[in-house]
Amino acid sequence: MTDHTNADTLRTPIVAVLGHVDHGKTSLLDTIRGSAVSEGEAGAITQHIGATDIPLDTISGMAGELIDPTDFDLPGLLFIDTPGHHSFSTLRARGGALADIAVLVVDVNDGFQPQTEEAIDILRRTGTPFVVAANKVDTTPGWNPQDGQPIQKSLEAQSERAESMLNENLYEIIGQLSDAGFSADLYWRVQDFQKNIGVVPLSALTGEGVPDLLTVLMGLSQRFMKEEMAIDVRGPGEGTVLEVKDERGFGATIDTVVYDGVVRNGDRLVVGGQEEPIVTEIRALLQPRPLEEIRTEKEFEKVAEVGAAAGVKIAAPDLDRAMAGAPVRVVRDRPEVEVVEEVKAELAEIEVDTAEDGVVVKADTLGSLEAMANALREAEVPVLRAEVGDIAPRDIAVAETANQDEHKAILGFNVDLLANAEAELENADVKLFTNDVIYQLIEDYETFVEERQRAQQETVLDKVVRPARFRILPDHTFRQNDPAVVGVEVISGTLQNNRNVGTFEGNEFDRVGQLSGIQKQGDDVDEARAGERVSIAIDGPTVGRGIEEGDTLWTEVPEKHAKILEQELKEEITADEREALAAYLDTKRKRDPFWGK
């Protein structure tokens, strides 16, 4: 055990590794672990639940001359292996991010991808310091690998052509960081890491550049986080739930990262739950067995206590409603009510503002739920209900209660549809969207809404009377009445059959009759567009009485239709229809300024 007598002991900084799906996060962690193991220091590396602890001596062994261990007071680095993918980056600790520092892994050939952008967004929002690991340098054409070497040593062994190709890719990434609002450079050129982001070229496969990454992480932590790492080592433990898991023999357990104080077996514990904070008592603290003992039946061994920073599996009653991302607090010698209030307050910070009407949102952790809520707020999509967890039948029932059809939707970030909800979804008028990239999820939903609105507008447009202005041509009377048949030219708008038509006498509209047929070059048609000449049959008037050759006539647009055309469908109708509508409205409004408003 570490010596806990010193109150200002520094804890291990928590490092999160994030990046796009296949850019090499896992292999980078494996390399860091693996090279430490191959240094013959298997015993030094301790596997925690959901985390790997790498002590300073091991790091300095791997980094060689890059690190002088006497420069550091920090005990090492704790890498958290995040559940699945990048959702971890939204895990919280007391309102901030759980990780003290982050590594953003970017494939040097692939540059920024959707999840890279998303990770950057989260780092910016939480203010987490980070370095960029430009991975896969070994895939540069003509690369000559120097296993495990610091990157500058490795660069000396490359041809000019390989180096310049790599540089081109690196500068592309530096440019993309700059577009995202971060000033960045290759790490050895960075003078001030608080103002600039260091880019570390490396290969998780060959280990080149990994010593540099460890050096930069240690340096950053030592320089900028020493104060934050000073904790009350013996205080009541505080942590964050990484995952809720069922374990044989223990029931529901929580994989937790402890970032402050100590957690002991038997402690009373308060954990953020789906409805209320859960108050329970620790029955067992479980750590993975050391690497060399992994062959044994039981993969975990029980420990009496765990001090920050560490990953541990906590077994206790009633944890099945615990939430990933929720706070974990040991009560110890404080009033239990106070601790419950603390947890409530922290959960309230993440409360999503819900509306009377809106979509249902489900996410895998509290942090990603919060990130979803922020993104939806920016997209102006209202939320009816937001919760952590897989999609259950009750979510479908809630989504169905939405007033507007486009809100009858569930947006699931990184969650599954429970088996018992599948049939319900098929029978419900609810649309399900799932994705593990937040903005992709929102984009899919927005596209659905737009397509829906367009379809609705098209049906409305089919039913609406379109405006038209047309002129009776001289010498084109084919029949005087019952019905009158005349040749006309459409000046603007769309002339539709079966519409009432009339003339304006001053500002008064005077209906003269109804169209009962339109013929274009001898064929019956439903409508005629601006510029076309057609013959029309009008029931009602007689040519010479009521209408004359040379008269300008209008389609009569009902007031309700005029309002819809002007306020909702203006973008959907053609320019000449807009012109006919404007002229029609102007004339009508000279008499009644509020007509059609």
From TrEMBL:
Residues that bind GTP: 19-26, 81-85, 135-138
UniProt keyword Hydrolase present: no
A GO molecular function held by the record: translation initiation factor activity
Tr-type G domain sequence ranges: 10-226
Keywords: GTP-binding, Initiation factor, Nucleotide-binding, Protein biosynthesis
InterPro entries, alphabetized: EFTU-type, P-loop_NTPase, Small_GTP-bd, T_Tr_GTP-bd_dom, TF_aIF-2_arc, TIF_IF2, TIF_IF2_dom3, TIF_IF2_dom3_sf
SUPFAM superfamilies cross-referenced by the UniProt entry: Initiation factor IF2/eIF5b, domain 3, P-loop containing nucleoside triphosphate hydrolases, Translation proteins
Family annotation (HAMAP family): IF_2_A (MF_00100_A)
Known function: Function in general translation initiation by promoting the binding of the formylmethionine-tRNA to ribosomes. Seems to function along with eIF-2.
Name this protein carries in UniProt: Probable translation initiation factor IF-2
Organism expressing this protein natively: Halorubrum rutilum
Gene symbol of the encoding locus: infB
